[in-house]
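User: Please run a holo structure prediction.
Assistant: Happy to. Please share the sequence and the ligand.
User: Here you go; the ligand is zinc ion.
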Amino acid sequence: MTGSARPSPSKSMAMGVRVRSVGAKVWVATARPAVKVRSMMLKATNGSPVGSGVPRMLELTWLAGTHDKPASKASPVTAIVHTRRFIRTLRAYRGPPWLEQPVSRPDARGAVGRTPAGRPRSASIVGRTGQRFDVNCGPYAKNGGAGLAAPRGWARGGLAGPGLSEYGRSPCPPGPGSGRSLRLQAASRVRELGPGKLPMSRIRRGGRALAALLAASSAWSAHAQTLPAQPGLVVIVVVDQFCADFLDRFAEGFGKGGFARLTSEGARYVNAHFSHGVTVTAPGHACISTGANPRIHGIAANAWVPAGSDRMHSAVHDPTHRAIGSPRAPEKNRSPANLLMPTLGDQMKLRWAGRSLVVSVSLKDRSAVLLGGKQADGAFWWDSSCGAFLTSTYYFGEPPSWLLELNRQKPADQYLGRTWDLLLPRSAYAANPPDDRPFERGGDLLGNTFPHRLGRSGDHSDQAFYQALASTPYGNELLLKLVARVLKAYPLGGDEVPDLLCVGLTSNDACGHLFGPYSWEVQDMTLRSDRQLAELFELLDQQVGKGRWLVAVTSDHGVAPIPEFAVQQRLGGGRFSAEAVCQAVRDVLDSLASSAATQPAHACRFTLPWLHLDAGRLASRGVGVTRAAEAVAETLSALPFVERAYPFTLLESLTPATDDPVLRMARQAYYPGRSGHVYVHVKPYFQPDEEAANHGTAYSYDTHVPLLLYGPGIAPGVHFVPADPIDIVPTLCALLGLEPPPGTTGRVLVECLSRPAR
Ligand SMILES: [Zn+2]
């Protein structure tokens, strides 16, 4: 892999060859300005062939460009017809000569566009059921003529092949004009009328073929549907630490183009909960990307002590690959090596022979790396210790030149001295408690009240400034600069093979930890995220095209209110010291050990919800890890802020079945050697003392997240049935006609599909 973006092979070739990559899709172009309908896509959809490999049904998709509205601005429309009836109709049709005339001039120039030297005249494509089509690339493959360029990613050409055997066989006819399939154009006039309302006078005017087609195909009325086209780009947006109720509590302040666009035009699952009990960043992102729980994908914590090491390492630590991208890059080793299951991106790479582009970006390394998966073309993140965007040698031999250039401009430093003030008038925030609360932890760099000034003063280091920056909406803004640069570097959504872009908005998490979910800061952060998403969607509309991208928006976890606030609200809860817990654990272990005085102290680390022991040291002191975990769990269960504690021996097996929902969730969170040895279920609203607000438990404030889907194939609606972020990937796979990743245990969210799953 080289420095610059690595386009997939099909995308680097001429438009004509690009057709090769579209599976069973074929574009049929009309090249004559007088024809209103500019182009048409023909796609086999049904897996049960009739006779010699001919698909039983065809899914026809077309663009209806006109003189005043070019095809590039039209929305694709799809309908399903019986292949045989369709072919019979076409065979009977004898169209006016102009239909074929333009394509009989293979060297036509000027109005119909120039054929670049060396572009292949034809391309063979193999359909989903093995049927083969030959596609004429012709002079119109690039330019539809009369100045009407083909929309980005839409190839044009004639059609022939045994799938439609009446229209010629492989190899492709000598000239595009002899691909008599161009008569299909007549049928494309259907679009002008619209399925379901087909005045016969217009049909007659529009062409006898259409009339014949409609008459002959009784399937038309039965199967004609206005179905959207397959998306060229799938986008997964994960907003780090985003409670489901933010979409309601803060809705009044939303604009039109962000969350409101998703909730009004897309599907919203209001009852989406994670079904595992380790609600922190790395496990959550891996669940979203693989459609599986930590028990299966293996990312059971943000960090653990790998075998052979004596200290905690990030979930995306890999000693064989290092972070690159800036001369200031710290010594960090990063890759998806610990992720044990393929992601959606990996499945897309597999399905389309590597031609899907998969790019993942986030401010956090674990978010970017785990969303992308094993085969991602690149994962990019921001490192707050150096203030630069980084990637890893896992993806690139050398950092991409555009990344180096972006870092040379020091985009993060431009925020020095900036002020974060309220987006809306103060009255819009009145539903929250007051802005100034003593238990918020904005610290010296941000302070606890608006306006927050991002300055570097006194002995504050660059690193402190960068960390503060990442806790404000400017952190997400910085990330969107990276997204815009990525969209320039990679032709995402640029052709018929769907691509994947993963975006992790993580400033919401850093902000939430400092100020809590009932703060003005989190409200303002959410409102600004709304505006930033609107900008992202606008960018996708421009670069990929309206109706050509599909987005899923969710979160990796929610967050609990600040304990002091919970106490104020008479909800109970409080603080505990993780170190005090570990001391209690060490005391228990000492009482079990035979040689307490002569051996080093027991290691213990407690990060909600896992308590990690050191099996090696336990062994050196003659204590079995099973006995230790069980004794520790018993001791912890007696602590006043602990509801229950489960030793790993209870989690290893899914049997015996249990009615205890927390035990079920803890089992889904468990992975041997990576999760801790004891799962600690604290009482509600209790948190360790490190952060103002925290997450990581099995309570609904941590598990309940938004689940929004928007784009072609998704019907608008609100759904109350239970859902889980692990359902996103199988649903996207169903829409893409893709085998879900092998670890997937989520379900297809069939309620929101506007067309049958493929
Ligand atoms: Zn967090």
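The chain has three domains: 9-223, 233-558+704-752, 570-692.
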